[in-house]
Write a structure and sequence with these properties.
By secondary structure, the protein is mainly alpha-helical. The protein is elongated. Helix 2 runs antiparallel to helix 3, helix 2 packs parallel to helix 4 and helix 3 runs antiparallel to helix 4. About 80% of the residues lie in helices and about 0% in strands. It is built from four helices and no strands. The longest helix has 29 residues.
Length: about 130
């Protein structure tokens, strides 16, 4: 085999590997919360904390934009929503077995994310 053919073959192999790696990076889903129960719960807490920061920023922005009675109603609604979220997720947390901790953490993450997106005006209902 000539040096030119070997170089062309090597270049094609490298290009194929690069394309394959790029496709894997693009199709890779967001990292999940896998591992032991403890690791899963801690991961869910971390993701919830990120969404909670986003929720707080969206709430502050919505509150700043609201006027008069609408502003007070938003405050009331947010306080009640927080009570509902906490009570709803506690329901899951009181289930049996270690899965209850994961279900409660997942509940907190899903509900917090959903409310953040709602306040940002990015929920599917808007």
């Amino acid at each position: 085999m000539s040096v030119l053919r070997i170089a062309a073959f090597a270049a094609a192999a490298l290009l194929g590997a690069a394309v394959c790696a790029s496709a894997q990076e693009q199709s890779a889903p967001e990292p999940g919360c896998d591992g032991s129960t403890y690791e899963m719960v801690e991961c869910l807490k971390g993701k919830t904390a990120q969404w909670d920061k986003r929720l707080n920023a969206a709430y502050k922005s919505a509150l700043d934009a609201a006027q008069g009675k609408q502003r007070e109603q938003l405050r009331t609604a947010q306080r009640l929503w927080l009570q509902y979220r906490d009570a709803n997720c506690l329901y899951y947390g009181l289930g049996e077995g270690t899965i209850a901790r994961i279900e409660a953490g997942d509940c907190m993450l899903r509900m917090t994310k959903s409310r953040a997106l709602e306040l940002e005006g990015k929920d599917e209902g808007n």
